[in-house]
Design goal:
Rossmann fold, 7-stranded parallel sheet, 6 domains, alpha/beta
């Protein structure tokens, strides 16, 4: 696309813009690979022929897997034809079975509307009876009975399904004939939301089994690092994976843009406005993604004002789009994007999901969205099919954004994150067990089968007066005032509680957290590019009244208190003692006024504080470090230095724990001179395992944080290093020199007590010097890593001597998805003459990131140097020992095409499949091993033990 090339030239050569361009990367186009699907019913075959639709290989593969009766997850990228892929086998079943029904679950109502239209089109064009109906909170009550009686394909959200299950008898015909459950945008079900939905799906399976059906599950997701593990945790069943994209791609240009390159008056918003205006004026239809609703409104307002002055005919081609807008407004914006009546839309991640808005030319990502999954989902909105496209990542000034924009490989080379689900969160589990009792009597067998718990937890619910025990099992207490699902709603899809009104008209609805944080009286409120002032906040009526905009000096912040620490486990590194456990968090809401840059007149809002229990990680800065700080410079304030450490560490936490920026927060009490504790805690009731992961990544977190703070060119601290305060967390004064001093002390303590911690050219053991007593004290720092055998294979010794990265370190980096760091360390140690081990390690890293072409090339280069698989099988054994079964299986399956006759590889595959609970496939592998080598007693023993 010539216009995109012209814009790229402008970015490279224009004086002011070019200073801010860190890198421009070109992602090459790819041709489509088509497949063949036999025995399709005539209506479907005729439909595909009339529409000139050729099926991609991955679309055919999905139908073939479903035909076998297996569950499947497809993780190909945005715009790869996943909707048609999962619709085909359902339509095929409908053509053969008049009673079959299907359930489609979506995280957002906007996606339901899109899929509803598509299913209607399939019904019209194929003649197959689909009978699709959406059923959500907007469905009129007078239509609900008709839908229950006539629906064949039900489209709903987890929130509505949560309510439907209690009224199961009204849906008995639908549930008894349920053949498929489709879960689209499945990657959205991670963390607290995902854990809730996982428990909800177990309740659904229990209801369908009660009515005599056992539906297959079809999951569609963005690319994930752990798709099989995730799908099995989400649903509780085994899955097959489709992750090879066979669709065509156009050229995509990725621009990394940093407004904060020592340039006068830098501003993320101003540069976002400038680039959005440039794209629109060059006829590049663009989505601009922002982190917050407020940013979306501000950017559209700024862009509109700019265009009104310079190009007024373009100023009406803009709109904002976000959660909270009513359905009609959202549908109108979506329609105008498809018809190109709108050329620029600023939005939150509400348009990140698969709402059909046609093919766009450009995407601007204004600030890192928090995960690589979201980054690629947003980038995938541009350039669908073979169209060329441009994506610009504009960094904010916080430490995390600055690190990413200056390390483009973090986005380009690193694999996507794990989707996390915690089925052991008692806070969530109790609520779902309560609901399950109200739906059907819950016996011990069902407790174990669906929820993996015994009666112990039910006794706790009984003590709370919520359930009673009967001879047939546990029952919901009839004297409760309402069905528990009405009271205990699914987190993070709860309908918004507060109405925002202007002149008697409802503008939107917002959550309690937003209402408490940004809707204090006198606050500036933005909606669709317009500014208002909050006139009244009615807490009990849950209504916020707006008036015309008035200039205000008020702002808000949240005060946090940590109480009731209950340690669960701890780990020591020298003087540092990290503890993980349960804590209580109290958040109160305050306002202050700003005058001449100073904050004055603090006052607590007349709203109840938020109090919840969660999981946290905490450690105390050793008193000897504090004493040394005073000796180093008596003018440095201890509290400001400790808080600087807290702020810097929490800013970099998402790089290692892989979570949203506000999913985990930090805390330090500056007002207590004796308190030197720093806390990191899950910002969700009950916790979701994020803080706990910090135990294993703490050394790397400290190292990268120290590097980030020292490399920042400011003298006293700035928002690019220690003065970042996202998520409404109040920021006190901080001291950069003191922060660096303490971080260096912490890092030195780690290096002194973790042998050879990441020293270049060595093989770090990452074993704490305290760990030798870990069996007695339970305080070893790292989980025990694989030790090197005393009688090592001499060929492996020779191989290991030639490489900078040890096998143990490679596995550790891969476990933490630090593919980019692993690649960099390997390449740093490579000389002009490549060695066998480096090539194998690089091939594995490419393999695990689905860069199969490059992986195959590297494997072949390695085998050209040394035609031997001993080292490869050694690495695969390490993966197995570390229980990285999915990674190991991925490597083995891709290697089978390169070394098909390797018996040890086949034996390792059998162990992996056995560990993943695929006994039939494991037996097949061990049988093949014995056919090739009848004297292989290891394979024989494995076979008889399955």
């Amino acid at each position: 696309m010539l216009v995109i090339e012209s814009v790229l030239d402008n970015l490279k050569n224009e004086k002011d813009l070019s200073k801010k361009v860190v890198a421009i990367e070109r992602m090459e186009p790819r041709k489509a690979r088509y497949g063949k699907l036999d025995n399709l019913p005539f209506p479907l075959l005729d439909y595909l022929n009339r529409k000139n639709i050729r099926l991609f290989q991955h679309q055919c593969q999905l139908t073939k897997i479903v035909r076998k009766g297996e569950n499947v997850i497809i993780t190909t990228p945005t715009a790869s034809g996943k909707t048609l892929a999962f619709s085909l086998p359902i339509l095929e079943t409908y053509a053969k079975d008049n009673k079959a029904t299907s359930l489609f679950i979506y995280p957002a109502n906007a996606l339901i509307a899109d899929q509803f239209v598509k299913l209607q089109e399939y019904e019209r064009d194929t003649g197959i009876r689909v009978d699709p109906y959406s059923y959500n909170s907007d469905t009129p009550h007078d239509q609900r009975r008709f839908i229950r009686d006539n629906v064949r394909t039900l489209l709903t959200t987890p929130h509505m399904l949560h309510l439907i299950l209690y009224w199961k008898h009204q849906w008995s015909s639908f549930f008894s004939n349920l053949k498929y459950v489709v879960i689209d945008e499945a990657h959205e079900y991670s963390g607290v939301f995902g854990s809730n939905v996982a428990l909800l799906l177990r309740r659904l399976r229990r209801i369908t089994n009660y009515y005599g059906s056992d539906p297959q599950f079809i999951l569609s997701s963005a690319t994930l690092a752990n798709p099989l593990e995730f799908s099995q945790l989400l649903v509780g069943k085994k899955f097959q994976l489709i992750d090879q994209d066979a669709s065509a791609n156009g050229t995509k240009h990725m621009v990394f843009f940093n407004p904060y390159q020592e340039i006068e008056n830098p501003s993320n918003r101003m540069d976002t406005r400038a680039l959005l205006s440039m794209f629109i004026l060059n006829n590049i239809q663009t989505l601009c993604f922002t982190k917050t609703k407020n940013d979306a409104e501000k950017i559209i307002s700024m862009t509109r004002k700019y265009l009104e002055k310079s190009n007024p005919e373009h100023s009406n081609l803009l709109s904002s789009y976000r959660a909270g807008y009513n359905t009609r407004a959202r549908r109108d914006i979506e329609k105008k994007l498809k018809t190109r009546e709108l050329m620029g839309v600023a939005c939150t991640n509400a348009l990140e999901l698969g709402v059909d808005i046609g093919s766009l030319d450009g995407v601007i990502i204004s600030s890192y969205p928090g995960t690589l999954i979201s980054t690629w989902q947003q980038a995938g909105r541009a350039g669908r099919g073979v169209k060329d496209s441009i994506v610009v990542f504009i960094a904010s000034k916080d430490p995390l954004n600055q690190y990413i924009v200056n390390h483009p490989s973090y986005i380009l080379s690193r694999g996507n994150e794990n989707a996390t689900i915690d089925l052991k969160n008692d806070h969530l589990l109790k609520k779902h067990l309560y609901c399950a009792c109200s739906e059907l009597t819950l016996n011990s067998r069902d407790l174990e089968k669906y929820f993996s718990v015994d009666d112990t937890m039910m006794y706790a619910l009984q003590q709370e007066g919520k359930v009673s025990q009967s001879p047939s099992g546990w029952k919901y207490m009839d004297n409760q005032s309402e069905y528990p699902a009405l009271r205990d709603k699914i987190k993070y899809i709860t309908p918004a509680d507060f109405m925002v009104k202007y002149n008697g008209k409802i503008l939107e609805t917002i959550t309690k957290e937003d209402a408490y944080s940004i809707c204090y009286e006198g606050a500036v409120y933005r909606h669709r590019g317009h500014r208002y002032t909050v006139k009244k906040f009615h807490l009990h009526e849950k209504v916020i009244l707006l008036e015309d905009y008035k200039k205000s000096s008020k702002d808000s912040w949240k005060k946090t208190e940590i109480k009731n620490r209950i340690p669960i486990k701890n780990k020591e590194i020298g003087l540092l003692k990290l503890e993980f456990g349960e804590i209580s968090v109290k958040k109160s809401y305050w306002t202050y006024e700003k005058h001449n840059g100073k904050k004055t007149r603090y006052s607590e809002l007349d709203i109840p504080p938020t109090i919840f229990k969660t999981n946290g990680l905490w450690f105390e800065i050793p008193s000897s470090f504090i004493a040394e700080l005073k000796s180093y410079n008596s003018n440095i304030d201890k509290n400001e230095s400790v808080d600087g450490v807290r702020s810097a560490l929490i800013a970099m936490f998402p790089l290692h724990v892989l979570c949203g920026r506000c999913d985990i927060l930090g805390h330090y009490n500056q007002k207590d001179p004796l308190d030197n504790y720093i806390y990191f805690y899950d910002n969700h009731p009950g916790g979701v395992g994020l803080a706990e992961k910090g135990l294993d990544t703490f050394p790397q977190l400290v190292k990268i944080t120290l590097d980030m703070v020292k490399k920042c060119k400011c003298e006293t601290g700035c928002v690019k290093c220690i003065l970042s305060s996202p998520c409404g967390v109040h920021r006190g004064k901080m001291n950069k020199k003191g922060t660096i001093f303490l971080l260096e002390k912490i890092y030195q303590e780690i290096k002194d007590n973790l042998l050879d911690f990441e020293e270049p050219g060595k093989s770090p053991q990452s074993i704490s010097k305290n760990e030798k007593n870990s069996e007695q004290t339970g305080q070893g720092y790292f989980p025990e890593l694989e030790s090197v055998p005393s009688k090592e294979n001499p060929e492996l010794s020779e191989i290991n001597a030639t490489s900078i990265l040890s096998d143990v370190k490679l596995i550790e980096l891969i476990e933490n998805r630090l593919y980019g760091i692993a690649s960099e360390q390997i390449r740093q140690g490579m000389t002009n003459s490549k060695n066998f081990k480096d090539l194998i390690q690089l091939a594995i890293i490419h393999d695990l990131q689905n860069n199969l072409k490059q992986a195959k090339k590297l494997y072949k280069e390695a085998f050209a140097l040394k035609n031997d698989t001993i080292y490869l099988n050694h690495l695969i054994s390490l993966f197995i020992d570390k229980k990285c079964f999915n990674e190991a299986l991925m490597i083995v399956e891709n290697l089978e095409a390169i070394v098909p006759e390797d018996n040890q590889l086949l034996y390792n595959k059998g162990i992996i499949l056995e560990s993943l609970k695929y006994p039939d496939e494991a037996i097949e592998c061990f049988n093949k091993v014995l056919i090739r080598d009848p004297n292989n007693m290891d394979a024989y023993q494995r076979l008889i033990n399955i």
